[in-house]
Design goal:
single chain, mainly alpha, about 0% strand
Length: about 60
Amino acid sequence: MQNFSVQIDENLFNSAAAEGKANFRSTDNQINFWAKVGKNALENPDLPVDFIAKIIIAKNI
């Protein structure tokens, strides 16, 4: 994976840090997870977001 520098809202970053810690993910991994869930939710509007998130988690195990 390549590293990129991006600007991100401080509140979003802090939320990702807290959520990532609760889910045993780093902040950057949490942001990537949210991005994957969001991308897939937009591509599959007929599927519930929770279902999409569970699929992504299952694929990463």
